[in-house]
Design the sequence.
């Protein structure tokens, strides 16, 4: 324990220098801005900042880049809540309950509670990084192909029912999403599938294009015939505070969300997009009032928010302690470190204690900076709703197009986003929920890749999913998840029918 | 009449400026920012190399040099776009072994010819590949490894960065030269493959980005491709020293511009890159990334590309990595 205090003191020395504070502030501000703007996310921002980092101290550089990364997770849900279009793909889940809350005039509460949830998620993640980083990293290495497959199968079964009221429609959309995820080059065989010779989708449909199209562009299209809504009163502090009941529900939800987020951050490849769906679906399942979900349930907003921030923080664990980046953003940060001659790996914490602990303390500083920035800004964000839609929505469309283009400088991606906007609009009109589609789309490539790789490695032996202990746990859990409702339904039916008449 | 004179004078002036303008654009190159197109997403080696060189180059050339990432289809989308771009010297593509020598044989619907559609500018790097094994495999020398894999049942599983990647072809070259069986486990890039090696999911990985993991102790290096030992790994023999001839696969990167670019522009770019490579801080950055710098003239690069195209074509056929 005293070691921890000493380490934090060391980190504080590094993180409280004026240059570190400045870069931290710049990073989190920029991160929040790119998080709010639909389409543009932390990745393009970090890639563009990379050359600048060559000329500044490596610790300051990583503090700034990290600030952009976790700052982006604060801002993403603001547009989700206010306008029903996400700022980043993980923020799509915040639309489900955040936007209904805004429609009920409770946008201030939603924005406030998500800022707090983000802080809680981040703090939980930071704590894990500080205390358990090497252990968790070693644990993550135990996850091979079979384990990933079983975990994702479990997640898929558990979350398939998140979409609205109709179970059948939700599952149908998950299946559609799974199919969309197959498009592109298959890793295991190198074959191109469903690409029709179009180079733009040879690597698969872009996640940002699909998410922004289905959620963002479709929302803009749907609003064209919707009457102007929302109140235009100025926001008082009182309006931001949730009721006592809401705090009681939201608090534990934040805790559970943080847990899921942390797990997904530690496993390379899992990521925030998966974490938010799992957190939301879990809340819906264990809630005593599941019918509230989709209509403004506060747990549905806080759990995913806490999850995506926890993921952003714990994603540093495999990156720093193993040198294994969990996603594209971490890969860029790894590159930034390596160019300075620093090689993250098992010895990182002991060889570079100032950088590691300085980074951790700067995470704390950055998160508090973000909360202090966000809370007063809630009033300003809510006033966004007062801008005439005729100005706001074209600007949003332009931002989405710019954001999607900035990923690969490909005009094709813009066509893709428009096409998915039309698809999403059709889904809205027909009453098909969009969130399960995104879920299936995200999970499908990982599910298939790991399934086939597990079988490759076991030389075709199917029992590998049950002989590997971690995998077996998740397979059995999936089976239980599937069979339990069937069993319960059968029991209910039997007690209703009574003795059978001949 | 007066109006007609006015109009025709304006037209004549406009034409003169247009012609004069375009002529002076060529002579005064560069007057606009130069774009280096990296045909992969941000975060990989191509990216780091381009960004490290962009700053010294812009100082030499006097205009900003910006890097654009345009990932897709193993780098072929962006490379094809540059092949069809204007040959005005403002668009440079980061070309490397994958896009120029391997993928043309693997993909059947390529939109460019790597030899005919480009003017090579300069070869930047030559990266030997290191054979790395995880500690779980229990071997520490190449001799032990070879005797183990020749008798292993089931055959050893090795990681690759993807079907048809340099790492895949290189390992197949090793396999056929050394005479053992191996099963390829493709991953989506070098980073997941490295993770799999470290965690013990696969037994071996032949790659150029393993040195940080080797120095961390997570991976054991057994041998290197190429003619000489690496400075950073002086105790690791080359494959030739270890008795396996013919495993000479090295990865490489360079700059190319569209075919038809003015020779003067090509030489100016070549000189700027060679000047950048000779700077100390640039060399230090590349040393930190464990990438060997080459440099040289456009013609040297041209003959290198052509010979690599032929050599790797044969290798792709032998390994059957070509798309139907």
Sequence:
């Amino acid at each position: 324990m005293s070691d921890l205090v000493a380490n934090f003191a060391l980190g504080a020395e590094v993180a409280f220098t004026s240059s570190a504070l400045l870069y931290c502030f710049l990073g989190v501000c920029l991160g929040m801005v790119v998080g709010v703007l639909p389409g543009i996310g932390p990745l393009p921002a970090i890639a563009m900042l990379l050359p600048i980092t060559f000329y500044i101290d490596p610790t300051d550089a990583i503090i700034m880049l990290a600030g952009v990364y976790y700052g982006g997770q604060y801002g993403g849900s603001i547009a989700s809540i206010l306008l029903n279009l996400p700022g980043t793909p993980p923020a799509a889940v915040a639309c489900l309950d955040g936007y209904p809350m805004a429609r009920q005039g409770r946008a201030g509460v939603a924005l406030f509670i998500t800022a707090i949830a983000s802080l809680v998620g981040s703090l939980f993640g930071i704590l894990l990084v500080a205390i358990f980083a090497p252990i968790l990293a070693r644990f993550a290495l135990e996850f091979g192909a079979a384990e990933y497959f079983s975990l994702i199968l479990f997640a898929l079964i558990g979350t398939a029912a998140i979409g609205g009221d109709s179970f059948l429609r939700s599952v149908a959309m998950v299946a559609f999403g799974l199919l969309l995820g197959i498009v592109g080059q298959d890793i295991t065989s190198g074959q191109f599938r469903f690409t029709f010779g179009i180079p733009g989708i040879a690597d698969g449909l872009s996640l940002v294009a699909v998410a922004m199209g289905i959620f963002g562009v479709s929302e803009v299209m749907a609003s064209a015939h919707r009457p102007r809504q929302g109140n235009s009163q100025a926001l008082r502090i009182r309006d931001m505070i949730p009721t006592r009941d809401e705090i009681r529900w939201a608090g534990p939800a934040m805790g559970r969300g943080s847990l899921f987020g942390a797990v997904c951050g530690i496993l390379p490849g899992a990521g925030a997009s998966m974490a938010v769906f799992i957190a939301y679906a879990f809340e819906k399942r264990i809630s005593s009032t599941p019918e509230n979900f989709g209509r403004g349930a506060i747990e549905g907003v806080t759990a995913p928010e806490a999850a995506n921030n926890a993921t952003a923080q714990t994603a540093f664990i495999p990156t720093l302690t193993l040198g294994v980046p969990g996603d594209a953003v971490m890969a860029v940060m790894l590159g930034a470190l390596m160019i300075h001659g620093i090689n993250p790996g098992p010895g990182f914490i002991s060889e570079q204690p100032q950088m590691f602990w300085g980074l951790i303390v700067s995470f704390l500083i950055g998160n508090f900076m973000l909360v202090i920035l966000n809370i007063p800004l809630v009033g300003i964000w809510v006033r966004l709703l007062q801008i005439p839609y005729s100005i706001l929505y074209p600007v949003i469309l332009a931002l989405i197009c710019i954001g999607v283009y900035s990923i690969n400088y490909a005009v094709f991606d813009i066509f893709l986003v428009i096409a998915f906007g039309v698809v999403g609009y059709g889904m809205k009109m027909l009453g098909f929920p969009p969130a399960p589609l995104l879920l299936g789309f995200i999970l499908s490539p990982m599910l298939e890749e790991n399934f086939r790789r597990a079988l490759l490695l076991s030389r075709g032996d199917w029992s590998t999913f049950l002989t590997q202990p971690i995998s077996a746990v998740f397979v059995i859990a999936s089976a239980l998840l599937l069979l339990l409702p069937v069993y319960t339904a059968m029991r209910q039916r039997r007690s209703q029918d009574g003795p059978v008449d001949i | 009449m007066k109006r007609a004179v006015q109009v025709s004078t304006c037209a004549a002036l406009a034409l003169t400026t247009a012609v004069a303008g375009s002529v002076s654009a060529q002579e005064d190159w560069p007057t606009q920012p130069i774009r280096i197109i990296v045909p992969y997403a941000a975060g990989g080696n191509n990216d780091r190399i381009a960004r490290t060189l962009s700053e010294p180059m812009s100082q030499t050339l006097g205009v900003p040099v910006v890097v654009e990432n345009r990932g897709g289809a193993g780098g072929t989308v962006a490379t094809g776009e540059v092949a069809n771009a204007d040959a005005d010297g403002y668009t440079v593509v980061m070309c490397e072994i994958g896009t120029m020598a391997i993928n043309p044989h693997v993909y059947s619907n390529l939109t460019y010819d790597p030899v005919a559609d480009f003017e090579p500018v300069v070869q930047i790097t030559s990266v030997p590949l290191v054979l790395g094994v995880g500690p779980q495999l229990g071997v520490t020398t190449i001799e032990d490894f070879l005797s183990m894999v020749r008798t292993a049942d089931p055959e050893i599983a090795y990681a690759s960065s993807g079907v048809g990647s340099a790492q895949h072809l290189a390992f197949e070259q090793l396999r056929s030269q050394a005479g053992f069986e191996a099963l390829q486990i493709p991953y989506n890039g070098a980073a997941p493959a490295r993770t799999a090696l470290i965690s013990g999911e696969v037994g071996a990985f032949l790659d150029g980005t393993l040195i940080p993991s080797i120095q961390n102790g997570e991976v054991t290096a057994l041998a290197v491709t190429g003619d000489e030992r690496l400075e950073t790994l002086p105790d690791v023999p080359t494959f030739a020293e270890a008795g396996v001839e013919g495993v000479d696969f090295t990865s490489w990167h360079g700059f190319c511009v569209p075919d038809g670019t003015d020779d003067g522009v090509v030489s100016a770019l070549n000189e700027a890159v060679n000047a950048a490579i000779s700077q100390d801080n640039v060399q230090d950055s590349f040393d930190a990334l464990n990438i060997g710098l080459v440099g040289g003239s456009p013609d040297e690069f041209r003959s290198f590309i052509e010979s690599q195209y032929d050599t790797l074509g044969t290798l792709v056929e032998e390994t059957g990595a070509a798309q139907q």
In short: Chain A has a mean pLDDT of 87. The CA atoms of residues 138 and 322 of chain A lie 8 Å apart.
